[in-house]
Prior knowledge:
The complex is a heterodimer of chains A (248) and B (235). With 248 residues, chain A is mainly alpha-helical. Chain A has helices at residues 8-39, 42-72, 77-109, 117-142, 146-175, 181-213, 218-239. Chain A has a single domain (8-216), classed as Methane Monooxygenase Hydroxylase, Chain G, domain 1. Chain B is mainly α. Chain B has a single domain, classed as Phosphate transport system protein phou homolog 2, domain 2 (Methane Monooxygenase Hydroxylase, Chain G, domain 1, Up-down Bundle), CATH 1.20.58.220. At the A-B interface, helix 2, helix 3, helix 5, helix 6 and helix 7 of A face helix 2, helix 3, helix 7 and helix 8 of B.
Amino acid sequence: xxxxxxxxxxxxxxxxxxxxxxxxxxxxxxxxxxxxxxxxxxxxxxxxxxxxxxxxxxxxxxxxxxxxxxxxxxxxxxxxxxxxxxxxxxxxxxxxxxxxxxxxxxxxxxxxxxxxxxxxxxxxxxxxxxxxxxxxxxxxxxxxxxxxxxxxxxxxxxxxxxxxxxxxxxxxxxxxxxxxxxxxxxxxxxxxxxxxxxxxxxxxxxxxxxxxxxxxxxxxxxxxxxxxxxxxxxxxxxxxxxxxxxxx
Amino acid sequence: xxxxxxxxxxxxxxxxxxxxxxxxxxxxxxxxxxxxxxxxxxxxxxxxxxxxxxxxxxxxxxxxxxxxxxxxxxxxxxxxxxxxxxxxxxxxxxxxxxxxxxxxxxxxxxxxxxxxxxxxxxxxxxxxxxxxxxxxxxxxxxxxxxxxxxxxxxxxxxxxxxxxxxxxxxxxxxxxxxxxxxxxxxxxxxxxxxxxxxxxxxxxxxxxxxxxxxxxxxxxxxxxxxxxxxxxxxx
Lengths: 248, 235
């Protein structure tokens, strides 16, 4: 039935493909933004900033597509989870792209500052690690691999450690007057952008786990609350304390 | 599933009753989001107390409250799904339900960030090592909480002007810059660890303000339904 309108699953597949494409754009902009930073490339910085429009457009289109599918169909539970995950992921990816725009803007502010090899090396490694995390998160999404999704949180520890070393290196360079105050500040802010991209990858991983299994990280907290309440109810039955969280 | 066909007056009354029940469920849903927002607000208060005094008991309370926030997030999500499945909503109803899913995710993140700061309580002394830095953190906290409250108020009152104002609030990059400057000026032997802890707090506060701006953008879209306003989340 070729003339029939797109089936529901075709629509879902399209959303998935678009999200993978959005993820690929983010995956490209991370090393490109880093290259621009390390080579003091002002034209490149401008190009990174302008390229973000494409990313924004695509994420907007995906979001509208999700609404469209929700409005036209009556999805089943697991499909609903896929669509809602799609909505969340566009937000995470779009903001990751924005962070590389911030790196490009930071590049302009430290124009002409030469970075010592240690700092350069750490920036490269943070960038690689952020790219790797994003790629793994997107792989987890495309393959519907929940266990990979969850694992990203642990893998992110490497980026956190690198970030700590990086801040230390900035302090060293600043103390020896290799870089001035303003450049140190900019570099410290730039380091945070990479760290935040890692956080977005972790979020994506958790969303993937939810999409596949229906399990949310928040359910642990919710379960603790229930456990506390039932414990309090037991104690309450003995000591007649009315509320779980009374007397705080 | 198509709407039930009306074949008699009695049926019509029944349909009307079902319709009213649905409307009240939607109202309840929006109200529950507000309640979740109030819990998050309580934890933002605790976060400020911790920044100010490093109170460990308050940090404990924040951890417990965060479990309640998580529980509300899960239950709101389930209710939204139930409505999506059962009612196949369109237009503004669909927008409301999807907004609930988006907004609760933002609220949950804001709650997590508040908790991240509250958990610094045992290391509060490190945060106060550089007086200028803790002052900036408290200023950032005040700004972030004000932003958040405006966003939540925009949600409860569906105030378009307020939502737009919160959505377009510029980033507070200036304060973050001063924060790093203050940290770099400090020359104690623990300078790096002081800087890292302080920056964790500073970054979390920036992001609370950022998520509040996204909340504002979401409320604006909920009110206007203008697809262009979906893009408003972008920076």
